[in-house]
Specification:
It is built from 12 helices and no strands. It is mostly helical and 295 residues long. The protein has one domain. The N and C termini lie close together (10 Å).
């Protein structure tokens, strides 16, 4: 029994590291995506979404050809549902970013880990501890401080509603990943994410593609980072409960905020740095105190 608990503890530590690595990959991906949609680069949000799915699908096919037996689909219904909801997340979040400030869209979208935790109560009958709820609350508060810079004047229009809808689909995706990880591996889940999500985003990428070696190199790097982030996140969901993963997912906007300072020249503020500290403290608290004790 002790050996089994020790093995489970090691798997949980690895899964936490995978979510931290996922946050780094997605943070760098977001920085590159923002840079590529600036005037002069020529890419639109639709272009980048399609490129992300195409590159991810091709990398998956290469992995399947190199590693025999890696492609093992089982629960087709959940796999397709995860792909469709993931495509909806991409479209809705990019739409939100086009209509409201990025910080405001980020605050609204970042409620998805909390929504996923609430859904897990019904879907998996998970019972997060009080410590986990406190950690989620603290980490979410930190993210709000980072993204709002201390100004919380949120209104509601098409952009805000799109961000909330994206959060809802993202929560559904998290539940689908957690459920399908019992029968399918992370590589298979990601492949269906690309295949089923691609038709959702193609209508938003019908304008002419840009040229240039540098923009395309950055766009391909962005797609590879998205592949790494998605694979690490899907792998971690095979071990961690949705509620604990929700805490670690709060590292994503924090990572993006910190990377934007040196890479995009954005300015850090006192509210932002306070939010970083609160979020990291919440993640640490939830990791140490959040696990439900076993007899």
């Amino acid at each position: 029994m002790t050996a089994a608990l020790a093995a489970l503890s090691r798997r949980r530590m690895v899964a936490r590291g995978q979510l931290a690595g996922s946050a780094l990959c997605f943070g760098l991906m977001a920085i590159l995506a923002r840079k590529l949609t600036l005037p002069g680069m020529g890419f639109t949000a639709g272009h980048l979404a399609v490129l992300r799915f195409v590159v991810g699908g091709l990398l998956s096919l290469v992995a399947f050809s190199v590693i025999p037996g890696l492609y093992r689909p089982s629960n087709y219904r959940l796999l397709v549902m995860r792909g469709l909801s993931g495509g909806a997340v991409v479209v809705l979040y990019f739409y939100a970013l086009a209509h409201v400030p990025a910080g405001e869209a980020g605050i609204l979208y970042n409620v998805f880990p909390v929504l996923a935790t609430a859904l897990s109560l019904v879907a998996f009958r998970e019972r997060p501890t009080v410590h986990l709820w406190l950690a989620i609350l603290a980490a979410s508060l930190g993210v709000v401080l980072v993204l709002s810079q201390g100004h919380l004047g949120l209104g509601f229009g098409r952009g805000q509603l799109a961000a909330l809808a994206a959060a809802g689909f993202a929560a559904t995706s998290a539940i689908a990943i957690r459920a399908v990880r019992h029968t399918d591996n992370a590589a298979t889940i990601f492949f269906f994410f690309c295949v089923a999500g691609l038709p959702v985003v193609v209508p938003f990428a019908l304008t002419p593609l840009p040229g240039g070696l540098v923009p395309w190199s950055l766009a391909l790097l962005m797609s590879v980072l998205a592949y790494g982030g998605q694979m690490l996140m899907s792998q971690a969901y095979g071990t961690l409960a949705v509620s604990e993963a929700a805490i670690w997912l709060q590292l994503l906007p924090i990572t993006q905020y910190l990377l934007a300072v040196p890479l995009l020249g954005e300015r850090a503020t006192a509210f932002g740095l306070a939010g970083v500290i609160i979020t990291v403290a919440g993640v640490a608290y939830g990791t140490v105190m959040g696990a439900r004790r076993r007899g």
